[in-house]
Amino acid sequence: MKLLVVDDNTIVRLGLRRVLEHVAGVDEVAEASDGLEAIEKARSFGPDVVLLDVRMPGMGGLEALPELAERASVIMMTSDDDAETIASAIKGGAKGYLIHGNLGVDEVAGAIATCSGGGTVLGPGVADKLTVQVASVGDKARPNPLTARLTEREAEVLDAAARGMSNQDIAKEQFLSARTVKNYMNSAYAKLGVHSRAEAVLLWKEAEDS
C-alpha cells in the first residue's frame, strides 16, 4: 500500500513516517508540503491513501481535497477541530477525519485499514463537533425531517450514529446484532443518497438543525 503524507510541518511529516513504519501493509511513503505539491505527487506516485492536513501555505487541504479524493482515500489528519471545517472535508470527499492529539500507531493503522477498505473514520470527538453549529436545549421540539424517508428502526440507528455511537454500541443499546445495525445503516444510506457513515451523519445533523 502506498501512502502520501501532506503537511507543511516537516516535524509532523517525519513523525507520521515513523508511525507508518510500524503499520502493517504500508510499503511506500511519499511526502508533500502543500496541496498543490500533493496533487502533483498523487499523479506521479499513485497513493492508495492520503493523510492530509487542512491549513497549509499556498493551497490548503480543503482546496486540494476534491482532486485527491478522486485518486485515493483521503484522511484529514489535522489539529483543526472547527465544525464547519469538518463538514466541508466530509462534503469534499474525505473518508476520515482525525484530530491530532493522542493518535498512536493503532489508531492511525485502524483508520488507514478502514478507509482503504472503503469505510469511514471519524476520530474521537469529531462527530460531536458537528453539533456545535446549532446547540439544542432540552427535548427536541420535532422529529428529524429525514425520518419521513426512513423506517423507524433505520432512523433510530442513524440517530444513534449521529450521537457518536459505534455499531457495537448501537447494537447493545437497541438489542440488535452488529451486522443488523450495519444493514440498517446501509439501507439508510441508499434512501438518503449518501455513500458513507460520515455523509449520513452530516446530513442527519444538518436536517436536525434546520
Automatic annotation (TrEMBL):
InterPro entries: CheY-like_superfamily, NreC/VraR/RcsB-like_REC, Sig_transdc_resp-reg_C-effctor, Sig_transdc_resp-reg_receiver, Tscrpt_reg_LuxR_C, WalR-like. Residues 2-115 form the Response regulatory domain. Pfam families: GerE, Response_reg. Residues 143-208 form the HTH luxR-type domain. The modification 4-aspartylphosphate is found at residue 53. One of its GO terms (biological process) is regulation of DNA-templated transcription. Transmembrane segments: none annotated. PROSITE patterns: HTH_LUXR_2 (PS50043), RESPONSE_REGULATORY (PS50110). Keywords: DNA-binding, Phosphoprotein. One of its GO terms (molecular function) is DNA binding. This is Response regulator receiver domain protein. It comes from Actinomyces succiniciruminis.
